[in-house]
Design goal:
single chain; about 400 residues; alpha/beta; about 40% helix
Amino acid sequence: MLSTVHRAPSLALFCKVVDNYGDIGICWRLARQLQREHGVAVTLWVDDLVSFQRLCPQVSAAAGAQQQQLVEAVAVRHWRADDEAFTPADVADIVVEFFGVDLPATYIQAMAACTPRPVWLNLEGLSAEEWVEGCHRLPSMHPRLPLTKHFFFPGFTERTGGLLREAALGQQRRLFQSDPAAIDAFLAQLGVAASERAACKVSLFCYPSAPVAALFNAWEHGAAPLTCLVPEGVAVQAVETFLGAPGSVGAVVRRGALTLRVVPFLPQRDYDKLLWACDINFVRGEDSFVRAQWAARPFIWHIYEQDEALHHVKLRAFLERYACDQAPLQALSLRWNGAHDADAASSASAAWPELWARFDAARLPMARHCERWEERMRTHGDLTANLLAFAAAVQADARQNSGIMPG
């Protein structure tokens, strides 16, 4: 357990897939970075291997509960039941539950039997709300067992855990974006024709509730050519209605100024390149939302919906930090998420062409803003390194206070 011998720790990461790809997308990026950049022995427990396989084709969705897959040096386990037997020998040095998932009771009991006990972290969801800073790294003692869990929040300030970012990501992005031939070659592999590559390029990744048809209409009647690249399976109803055909990979249609093309659902590395290659990105949830920020391109976020419109509070909190001086971006973002003023609802459809025209006109200065934001976020360090540093600090405190029994 994080012994005094200088070695990389082991880490168990537990993920339940709620947002189709966002949850496992974040956990998979985190697991890979922990292993590659820090040498951590990672076991990733996932309850939905089918969704995982779409992001990482090497994963076998048919693996049994007892079968361990080694994928890019990460041990992947299918988290199928909560009553599996665990012993202290099965427990990792660091145990991370993603977004408040309940660990198996048998695993928690095994954690309590360890000497020393593991560092237990709840990696929370990303939010720009101010209260996050006050809750970051707070301890929570188990009501019955001698265990303490700490909350670890990603975020946008130095008083949070920062954002997931691989060490070489910025350099890779800048090299790619400064190489027109590399961008053309990548898009050509997706079937994007030369005329489509010459237009304004927009990637579209959203939830089914997004007002995609209204946006397509604005683009179709726009003043300049626009190419929309949408991954297969995204916004299916609106895409197939516009195409007048099934939304399979390679389907394409041009109507007015808009060319709509369906591209494959890409693995994470290629999806990063798609964000880098496009002029504007529509993203959703948390994983693609963060990657759009590292792409340093203008983007519109479709936030995951919550009861009582709590997601609108989170959206406005982010826009206040990110786009306080970007009125066109704020207006389009609010309308995209249904967070616009109620008295404007009756004219929502008619407002789309104007909203888009204002956003598009501000795109160049907005791109400079995106570069500055990316630079600012890098100053907070990356979430993975920050998480490991905090885990080491917790372990050091436990050693220092080893005579004190928590709980």
